[in-house]
Structure prediction request, 575 residues.
Amino acid sequence: MTNFIKKILALSLILSGTAIAREIRNPLPNTVGYLYNPCYRCDHDCRDGNWELGLHGAGYTRFADSAYDKKHGTDKVPLSQLYFGKYDFRLEEAFQGATASVEGNPWVNISTVKPRFDYNERGVRFGGNVAYSFGKDDSWTFGASAGIPYRVIEVERDADASFFTDGLGDVATEKKQTMGDGSSVNVYAVRMDLVNQLGVPVSAAWATTSVKVADKNLSRDTSGTDDVAGHLIGRLDKSVPTGDFAFKYSDAGVGSLAASGVLATDAKAYFDDANDYTALDGNNSVLSKLWLVPTADDIAATSTDITNDAKALGGALKNAIDTSLLADSVVDFLDGKGLNFDSQRVMGFGNLDLAAYLAHRFGKKVWVAAELGGKLGIASETSKVAGTASNKIMDYRKLLAQPLGNNGHHELGGKVTINVSNCGKIALRLDGAGYWAFSAKEKIGATLKTSTIKNIGPEVVADIDWGYFLGHADLIFRHPKTKNMELDLSYELYYKGEDNVKFADATVTDLDDDTGKEVDKALAQADTKVISHKVGAQFAYRPDCLSMYAGVRQSVAGKNSMRDNDFYFGFDGAF
Prediction:
């Protein structure tokens, strides 16, 4: 038995293994080891002399379909914000400067990517502990524990949600419009971010009086004397305008477009000679909310057609659309780079949790324990994500995948547990643990300078480390006539500090094969601080030296954390 204890203690100090940096998940239930419920057998001595051997096992399930926002509180957002820093974005935001010039695929700049998915996990955890009591009245206990989960993790795309929006019909459309004299004419509406991608001549002189598309003038002064081929309609949700497209300068409500380019939904405007539109140059975020529409003729009080310049502009745009490579999509581009948003499933063993502890009982009222522990990650064929060549769990190109445990990191920490009125009808248990995941190399998607999303990019090696705190407060009610039945009401606080990221290279080649692009440590670290608040209830039945329990935990608030639900059941026995 003595040699066995020595081996356990040696293992607890080795601590080598594999957790994804930028860990976005909360700790699993029932992973806090034997000390989570020490000395519960108040009326039963389960020791063999001074020794006690314990075994435990549990099953659990976890579900999350949303997360808590960047601001600490209860506001929820889609899970994709934890992965990429935003839940809706354009792929160009992964490039340096949040802009891209991908030849032949304008959708990189135009399409809004809306990843929507659920996180599902189920598994079992099993382990054991060995303890030795000594001192006066055996008030001291020295022990060691080990436990390991077998996990099945599924990240599933939401079947009811469209990941990739803004197909051709969402950014360019044509229809019949009835004019004032009753005639029906063809009119069009093209979103300005698409106009920028079509290859038609677009004036870059935003600061002058010559905003032009296809050599057709769009700028006018407030006198209305300038001939313009097109006007603008605002749509803050980027959707196709409703109602008539074509209108004339003299129509009621037509105004000057502000220099910022911001235009209210369904508001009508024109490019004003007096304004400096430099802020719109390549700004797809603003341009995507502006629709270019034809100018109606102003020959009579009631328009009968669109102007000749408007017709010429429409023809140039239609020709550009017909001859461009708009059959491609963001998916085509990502596939060419080996990146995908496919649903992911992985199964296998998670971290091996090891701990050694020393506890002291003060009478029958108070029990205090101190623990030194860590995590030993293991890898097997079943714990690899398909397609990876090493025993690392994470493949960065599978954008929704999550690992089974640590991703090459050593982890070490300590914990203190206090039980008050340990064997009374009402008991209080407090525990707090701090752990540090030591620096290790990971292959991740590079975050580029002045980009606005993360974890989508070319491969880069990074050294990453982080620390976290996990604490619980439990109020335990025991049956007044028997101590075998318990109701445990609990609160859990999880706080993970910001990641420390060090890239191996200062520059990389981006997804469009442009070299010399700077990586951004600050953005990679941004929003990796996690706070999670959970409440739970557990019922336990503890006859003799056996404990059976079932419980539930619910996230109620947080910051950059999953809004998850846990259900679990298990047993704990000693002999």
